[in-house]
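Worked example 4.2. Below are the chains of a multi-component assembly; read each line carefully before continuing.
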Amino acid sequence: MVKFEEETYLDNVRGALALRGQIEAIVDAAAGQCGNLCWLGIGGTWASCLQTTVHMKERSAMEVFALNAAEYNTTGDRRVGERTFVVISSVTGTTEEMCAAVEKLHAAGARVLGFIDKEDSPLARAVDWCISFPHNEQLKFFMTADRFMFLRGEFKDYDRYYAQLDACLPEGLAAAEKAADEFGRSFAKAHMNDKLHYFVGAGTLYGATYSYAMCYWEEMHWIRTKSIHAAEFFHGMLEIVDRDTPVTVFVGEDSQRELALRVAHFLPKVCGNFCVIDTADYPLEGIDPEYRGSLSHLLMHAVTNRIDAHLEALSGHDMKLRRYYRQMEY
Amino acid sequence: MVKFEEETYLDNVRGALALRGQIEAIVDAAAGQCGNLCWLGIGGTWASCLQTTVHMKERSAMEVFALNAAEYNTTGDRRVGERTFVVISSVTGTTEEMCAAVEKLHAAGARVLGFIDKEDSPLARAVDWCISFPHNEQLKFFMTADRFMFLRGEFKDYDRYYAQLDACLPEGLAAAEKAADEFGRSFAKAHMNDKLHYFVGAGTLYGATYSYAMCYWEEMHWIRTKSIHAAEFFHGMLEIVDRDTPVTVFVGEDSQRELALRVAHFLPKVCGNFCVIDTADYPLEGIDPEYRGSLSHLLMHAVTNRIDAHLEALSGHDMKLRRYYRQMEY
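Applying the procedure described above to all two chains together yields the following structure tokens:
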């Protein structure tokens, strides 16, 4: 399988899950002074923030909100104060908008937990608590969110759920990558020359839809996309779909599944070039069915990983290449 | 001027501003029992909700959030309860997701103020308070938001600000439409055959960017678009911009002006087909400069109205035509 090393993959997921002890210690110590909870990001990390707030708002009565770093730096947010707990993530630890935001958050009295992959970086030094481990940002965010909800009595199944994840998630996701490989190849082959590709999704998968379109296809593959929330699809975008329009629908298993399915059921009436990717097609051995909604975005990421690997191989376009980002001043 | 009747236009803005007494009476009576404030919409009204929350979060420490109606109907939101005041808007009063949402909001104990243009409609009957007057949804939302902030002591200038709006806004916006007419014609002519047009904006104009791209170009003109927040532009989308890519930047005068300007300054380095629409180019006689940020989205709407009028005239495509929306079951 191209670009897939199973042992490394398993180690990455296991390593992320093993951060739970550190996360619990931080959240348990901080939760008492926490009046509201803020997820702050930009670009790909902003998408992860969106996913996490969707996950929480169904379950928690806590004041939870996502902030875009650049928006916070300019507009500010009066809800941020001394009782605000902020969670951020960064691979490089140098993203300029994030560095400025942490400074502003501190000036407002907020405290910041950073998942900063590079330990020796400006962001790693700036945050109040730093956890450094590469990959699986979404899992780190959800573990943090779940611990807050557990402490508030809003996640009764916490221990059972995480026991299953620890025991079975790494192998489950690796199995999904393997099961999706042939699909990924055929999808990449069919769409590698698209002039414009539409991605539609809902729930915790909306963040995945948004970031997959923008951070992968646009930024890494240089293919134009539009992403849209499945709920919004019916209030405008549907009108430009015709027989040949390439549209892919991400269908997850959380509470908004029906919104994505509505698009999946509409498309065959007007379009002959659509694709539905349903996480329900991928088993997760050892994990209870009722937990799959909270893991759908991870399954979808396993599938899109296979599309990316084949798209890169087939097109010959190196995903690490950038035209402008960090290549020039602006 | 095509599709512009000045007296009707002035009457519409004046009529919306004249709703303020009704809005104040409702908000003044309800604010004491209000623990949090929710803006709920879908499609175009969702965009107006986004604009209003940006306007408020800079100024108010109140818990304020926007909910997409279809998301609320599926995922719910545990922050919604008996102390929640909800604001909605609908032209027809029949949008199915909105009808279902109001029912669910009521089941949670929340109370709903509806700006429902059609008095004799399901939504008008369902809401707790109904104000029926066509057009200017954004102005109605901002008046409601401003009254809440005034009562909390977060908007000291309230009386002075609205005295200026009452005296000068209708004529100011009409003047902007007239000033933008020739630009609107040339823009429509240049871009009427675009295969894909990008719109970028920030702050209260992000909602305008989103809805203009989706609800006008996609839904009404059947031209493909992507809209992106100016802050997010630099985290993915920039890589697919080349010499010929049609990109329009909406620049407003609120706190996020610099985010849009950053895109406007970047584009000339890589693109020869971009356009910047800056609300600062349009005077608003009699209105203090520091208030213009709160009115930029209205000025931008005046400009895009002119693009729409000419696009319809030049293309011969009737903006009222729909392929699918309310034309078929799905």
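Take a moment to check your reading of the output against the notes. The domain at 6-151 of chain A is CATH 3.40.50.10490 (Rossmann fold). Chain A touches chain B through 65 residues (CB under 8 Å).
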